[in-house]
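**User:**
My hope is that you can spare some time for a protein that puzzles me. This is the protein in question:
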Amino acid sequence: MTAPRTSSGFITRPVLIALAVGSLGGVLFMAFLIEFDHYASQNSFCTTCHSMSYADERYRQTVHYNSASGVRASCGDCHVSEGIFAATWDHVRGGKDLFKQLFGPDYDDPVINALHLPEAAFAARRWFRDRDSVTCRRCHLQDAIQGTRADTAAIHREETEGKSCIDCHYNLVHRTVPDKSTFKREAWNRMVEEQFGLDPGAADRLLGGH
């Protein structure tokens, strides 16, 4: 009758090598994810797509870029979740936007960009709402908000039950887009036509072609 093997019998040299290689690989993989998140969350990376330069132009005119305190929110500060795995997932999900950029409408065209902007705004607001505006709360402490109006602090204490930041605070950084519940596509198309000097109905035809 053979004696039972002890646990030490499994710790052979190949096993130790495999553990060491696996551990080193895990460390290097995590380091890669951290560096990738840092790189892909910067404004310079986001604006490598020309279509994003339109959003960047408006952003540079807001207090999220020019604040009195000198604090400047980047694209990643607002649009990428905290935590390396959540952030990585956000970057992976962003791949669908790259796919649309490469194979969808010509978003580099300012007219096409403006026509499709509402859908992008609604998707972004849904993203914030699904996460209870967690990226807003990284910088803004609700209990500490004072504002410039006398009732601002009271509003944030007493009237925010069941609400997320994005429910009240949108159109702060990028071009103004109405709430989805009041948005009228026809009115938006006519506004874009007027802005770019297009013939009546041109916006409908452009959207119809995409």
